[in-house]
Amino acid sequence: MRTVDLIYFNAGGGHRASALALQAVLRERQPGWQVRLVNLFEVLDPQGKFKKVTGSAPEDWYNKRLARGWTIGMAQELKLLQGLIRLGHPMLLRALQQHWLRTEPDLVVSLVPNFNRAMFQSLASALPGVPYATVLTDLADVPPQFWIERDQRQHFICGTPRAVGQALALGHTLERVHATSGMVIRPEFYQPPVPDRAQARRRLGLDPSRPTGIVMFGGHGSKAMLGIAERLAETTQLILVCGHNKALAARLEALPRGAPRLVLGFCSEVPRTMQLADFFIGKPGPGSLSEAVQMGLPVIVVDNAWTMPQERYNAHWVRDNGLGIVARSFRRIDTAVTELLADLEGYRERVRRIENRALFEIPLLLERILEEAQAVRPDPGVPLPRA
Fold first, then answer.
1. N or C: which end of the chain has fewer CB within 10 A?
2. Spatial separation of the C-alpha atoms in residues 339 and 314, rounded to whole Å
3. What is the CATH architecture of 2-185+357-376?
4. Residue 190 CB partners (closer than 8 Å, separation 6+)
5. Sheet containing strand 107-110, strands side by side
6. For residues 216 and 274, what is the distance between their CA atoms, to the nearest angstrom?
């Protein structure tokens, strides 16, 4: 049995969602593999000291900021975070080396940014020959030293030509830079469509004949959804998914009603719910954009000073592929909706051209990476020949 570790953390939710999706498909394809999910912050702080001192896990601070929309200035904060990671590099190395020696994986797959230098170096020193791969869960890197590090003999799995080009430009070879057709999304997004969408809309109190937008800002929602709902209240039928943010859902329910509106909290059937919509409104996150496009939905997103640095390229990706509208802010969301609906079929046609099979391509790449590493690495169960 081979052991594969998928490294994630809960900042934003997309890293864990990608890890869960990969774990599910790997277990199906390779029943002989032990596929483990490893929360990086639990490895670095196994006693939970940070939470005991501050009252919150490190990811909670980040997720609360996303829910409140406090994202301006994150580019500067990213530099500070990366400086602290560099400063703490020796400590990170020791903690990770001890973890690898204790758990002995055969393959390590990172789905997180910023920590890849420490993870790669600690693995190479503790378990020489064990391959290390980074799956970028963003459409592109944010140089320097966000996803792609220089001078590391590791593998990179990239979901866009832009990311592939960034890895090659940093000196990594074609043998170690692998292209996929998109981002990892959950297996449920490949299910067949709802058989009777009109009837499904009626059951939820929606008008089957009206164009419908679905508004999503991740698992914790965003206060931006209030402004969107208010500005579109009289004109546009909306499905608003608030995730775990019960307070936001209550405020949305209390808004004056005009056009039909469906407010949902945590939704376990996101793919099915998205199939009831005609277009998507939200932030330009790689996961939400990829899910919307997979469901055939043109998108409306914003790109401004509040856009997080790792999501700024995503707006260019939307423009370059003609997948929707990129606005400066949601204050003119009514204008953006009008523009989108004026050429809805054209946007739908361009969305349909995007075929994302990354979830099923990555297992094949990991199988090959592991096979190549095992071919040159002696099996610890086989005794070496005597001289």
1. C
2. 20
3. 3-Layer(aba) Sandwich (3.40)
4. 294, 359
5. 33-39, 2-8, 107-110, 132-135, 155-158, 177-179
6. 10
Q: What is the pLDDT of residues 46-67, one digit of tens each?
A: 887 766 555 666 676 666 666 6
What sign has the CA pseudo-torsion 360, 362, 367, 368?
positive
Distance CA 273, CA 113 (A): 30
Burial class (CB in 10 A: 0-12, 13-18, 19+), 124: middle
Burial class (CB in 10 A: 0-12, 13-18, 19+), 160: buried
Residue 108, beta-bridge partner list:
5, 132
Q: What is the pLDDT of residue 140?
A: 97
Contacts of 105 (CB under 8 A, 6+ apart): 3, 4, 5, 36, 127, 130
Find all residues with CB under 8 Å of 58, minimum gap 6, and list them: 9, 11, 41, 50
Sorting pLDDT into bands at 50, 70 and 90, what band is 305?
confident
Query: What are the residue boundaries of the structural domains of the chain, listed by start?
Result: 2-185+357-376, 192-352
Q: Assess whether the region 2-185+357-376 and the region 192-352 belong to the same CATH fold.
A: yes
Q: Is the peptide bond before 144 cis (omega within 30 degrees of 0)?
A: yes
Mean pLDDT of the residues in the chain: 92
Domain 192-352 has CATH 3.40.50.2000: yes
Amino acid occupying residue 1: M
Across residues 73-78, what is the average pLDDT? Answer: 78
- Map 158-191 to HEC letters: ECCHHHHHHHHHCCCCHHHEEECCCCCCCHHHHC
Sign of CA dihedral 342, 343, 347, 348: positive
Residues 6+ apart with CB under 8 A from 121: 93, 152
Structure confidence at residue 378 as a pLDDT band (50, 70, 90): low
Checking if the pLDDT of 385 tops 50, the result is: no
Other CB atoms within a 10 A radius of the CB of residue 231 amount to 17
pLDDT > 80? residue 370:
yes
Provide the residue type at 23 as one letter.
Q
Q: How many residues does the chain have?
A: 387
